[in-house]
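An instance noted here:
***
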Amino acid sequence: MLPSQYRLKKHSAFNATYRVKNSVHKGGITLFAGILKKDDLPTKVGFVVSKKTHKRAVKRNRLRRLMRESYRLLLKNNELGNSQKYMSLIFTGHEHALGKNFDEINNIVKNLLERI
């Protein structure tokens, strides 16, 4: 599980990140990036899969878990690149990402972090 210091929790923090309108999309996952950091605080990350994506919570939670685990492994291996310049990141899962396995999700997340 992702340590709590890296989690984006507050509703206002999610809204502030969405308001910046800095996003990248690939393979059914969209990455929203917040404002640039001014100090050495860790980048906060949120993972969202809406109910419109699939009505079953099991499917939504599986996609959320895959995205979270992929980000956690990249954080552990220090392969996050330029994404650490932002205050917050939000990964949003869509319908096209539901049937994908971990390797495909991992490649998409890695590609999104490079492109941001």
